[in-house]
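#lab-general

N.A. 3:47 PM
ok so I finally got the sequence cleaned up, no stray characters, all 184 residues accounted for. can someone with queue access submit it? mine expired

B.Y. 3:52 PM
send it over

N.A. 3:53 PM
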Amino acid sequence: MPHLIEPATTARSKCRGCGERIDAGVLRFGESLPNPFAEGETTHWFHVDCAAFKRPEPFLLTIETATGVVDAERLIAEAKRGLEHRRLPRLNGAERDPSGRAQCRSCRASIAKGAWRITLVIYEDDRFSPAGFIHAACAREYFETAEVVPRLRRFSSGLSEADLDEIGAELQRSADEPGPPQGG
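B.Y. 4:20 PM
back already:
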């Protein structure tokens, strides 16, 4: 069975990318994979935008034949950006460090308590596994692009626009003043 984009028939499926429920009638992306527990295939469901961000290669293969996808050009551009910058699909949101014990995967320095950090996941064995954190200021170097705010907005539902602006300012500062991250 090929990958597909279709309206959700019920509200029972959960997005593999963001973990939120996919409402009935909303377009969803289905990635068809071999069933690890039995013969045949299984389908992993994603919101269409989550698929563009987290599973760019199968998404691009499928979007070419799909119809009715709102904002398809933007999603195609985001998926292509994810292929161009191989670490970008690892981005899983942003939060303030609650303890000060985390270590940045990019610069290897500690992330200060209360500092912004970006959470990472790695897709392996047909699932997303936690992969640590990076300083917000290290995002440009780690992802090899500063175009991360749309992904942060999608995967950090608890952040306000002011929070996103603050993280964006850290990204900009890191571009203007290369060096070790502040507060870490």
